[in-house]
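Appendix B. One record, verbatim.
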Amino acid sequence: MFEHKNGSEVIYIADTNKWCKDYFSVMSLRRVIICTGPPGNGRDEMLTKMKEKASFHYYHLFQYIVEQAKIEGTNLNKLNILDFYDSQPEKMDALREAAVARIEAEIKQRGGTNIISTPHHFEWKGNRFKGLDHGDVERLDPDLFIIIFDDIIRVRERLAADPQWTDHRYTLGEIANWRREEMADVYEQARNFTPRKEVQIVAYENGPDLLRDIIYNPRKEKFYLSHPITGEAEEAFRNFTKFAAALKDYYIVYDPSMIKDWEIVESWRDALNDAIDRKEPRPAKIPVHIQYHDGPKEITLDTAEVEAAIKNLRFQIIDTDYKIIENSHLVVVYHPRQSISAGVMCEMVYAKSLAKLVYVYYPYEPSPFFEWYSTRIFKDESELRDFLIKESKMTGQTPLDLYSTR
């Protein structure tokens, strides 16, 4: 394992002969990344944290628009910019175009990594506004889109604490819909290019290290860690995290448990099922427990508000997981319990439909269906871990895709 320091950034490279050249190519060649995510999802907070560990040129589109407006004699700030957009959309579009042109000019003068940060979609007083339109995106010609998002509870807390949004009490349903629109818009923009531009989805709970890995290790293989979630104890999640941590030097690991909306859905379902079993009316309030990296959170939600958002949330959980599987090179199933998770089974089926490799840790005798949708099943967790390390491109061994023909 080779350690390279770039200012405050430390990059670990498994094979000096193969990866030094790739790393320095990433650092020297010009790359353009559009980093999106609705307000309140922690996008700029995560980029600021990543700036402590990596070197990149940071373009906050809002600041460029404010500066352009000042040049033209208009005083814009966070408190009035969307009202201005609502009242003078053509003027706002012109300011944004000028700001994007300035960013484009600055990028052309620089090498390295260039990250443009902006929401792609705004919800404001019942209207919808674009953070970027197709012409802006074509002009910037990004190599990569990254969508940063967080669970709807933390998003609402951030919006409530932000002077720009504090007077607009968004419901959980509105926040969920805003995120859905954001993702749909970004994917539409990516599809407008031939070939389609790459889109990566990053949950805020993953932290800046995973984001840095996506940007600075483009050849590092990605895998989706499929595992049971419903009904699992905290010890099981610690084991999932431990398994993923053992492989993070060799792969970019997407763990669906980092997407915390699941806890909201499961708390709602448990509360309703408990009321059904007791033959009682559905409760007016639902207690929700969420375990974050920085500690647990207990919150009580109105049942009616949760139910207004629940269909959207349930759709997004499935849609986001499937999109991450699409973005991954392979799927790794960590399934220590005997009873098969319906969610894991669906993810395996979807992965195989995309010709993805599916490597499984399952210590029991599998059913024919479970076996059918597995590329290979390992009875021992350490055997699967060692296999993945050995076959990782980071160690310079046999590419995993060769096993698809076996």
